[in-house]
Design a protein that fits this description.
The structure is a single chain. The chain has helices at residues 3-14, 29-40, 88-116, 136-160, 176-189, 193-202, 212-222, 226-229, and strands at residues 20-24, 44-48, 70-73, 119-123, 163-169, 236-239. It is α/β, with parallel strands linked by helices. Strand 4, helix 4 (136-160) and strand 5 form a beta-alpha-beta unit. The chain is built from eight helices and six strands. Helix 2 (29-40) crosses helix 7 and helix 3 runs parallel beside helix 4 (136-160). The longest helix has 29 residues, at 88-116. A six-stranded parallel sheet has the order 2-1-3-4-5-6, sandwiched between helices.
Length: 241
């Protein structure tokens, strides 16, 4: 059976729209969980990750697929330090990845998204509205990501039919970033790792970190059909408090 006919039959059988989806930060954590879940559902997933030599701050057009239905701006980094020890290069790295990366990737993918009347999903964070000690740059970058999501929806939805929304999870479990945060908190605050983990879990209503596979499944459901997320444009959905 020709590939195009096989994909058409899968779409009919599953009752889903199959899409070309570009995910930044796809090599680990939530990005990897998203890639695996969306591929399992039959979507064509394109990863964009530093381990492959890609950089969300300076995306090259040769690195991008020719057709994009969905852009998931997931790449993120956090550097934890007290203000009096926080150096400008650390600020630039966090802001460039978490905020400028959304701008650069959205602009680079815009021609394809206009053509497909596609979707942009920004992975924000509860840090956008919940300040964390020693995380000035991260909080600022996620606050920027939140308002950029609302602004891009106002600019792109009516003009081009592009849906733009965000998802703001709390601390994810078992990801490279979570492990890095735990280590940085220990070094910065002088806590033991056990105390740092207990402190952070006590701040979560469920008392648990969010499994990336669950969030990936939720996002995959939203992407099964445009009607599942069309009316979320201009919204940032909390996922865990």
């Amino acid at each position: 059976m020709p590939q195009w006919l096989s994909l058409y039959c899968q779409k009919k059988r599953r009752g889903k729209e199959l899409s070309n989806i570009l995910i930044t930060g796809s090599g680990k954590g939530l990005g990897l969980a998203l890639s695996e879940e969306l591929e399992n559902q039959g979507h064509n997933v394109f990863g964009f990750d530093l381990k492959d030599g890609d950089d969300v701050r300076f995306p090259g057009l040769s690195d991008l697929p020719e057709e994009i239905d969905v852009l998931i701006n997931n790449a993120g980094v956090n550097i934890i330090n007290w203000l009096d020890n926080f150096v400008e290069s650390e600020w630039d790295m966090v802001m460039d990845t978490n905020a400028k990366g959304i701008y650069m990737m959205s602009k680079a993918c815009l021609p394809m998204l206009i053509k497909s009347k596609g979707t942009i999903i920004n992975i924000v964070s509860n840090a956008a509205h919940m300040p964390m000690t020693c995380s000035l740059a991260y909080n600022a970058s996620k606050g920027a990501a939140h308002i950029m999501t609302l602004q891009l929806a106002r600019e792109l939805t009516k003009k081009y039919g592009i849906t733009v929304f965000g998802v703001a999870p709390n601390k994810m479990s078992g990801t490279g970033m979570s492990d890095s945060i735990d280590d940085q908190v220990v070094d910065t605050r002088g806590w033991t790792k056990e105390y740092a983990q207990e402190y952070q879990l006590n701040g979560l209503l469920t008392g648990e970190e969010t499994p990336p596979e669950l969030l990936a499944g939720f996002i995959a459901y939203l992407l099964q059909d445009k009607t599942h997320h069309k009316f979320l444009t201009g919204c940032v959905l909390p996922y865990g408090a």
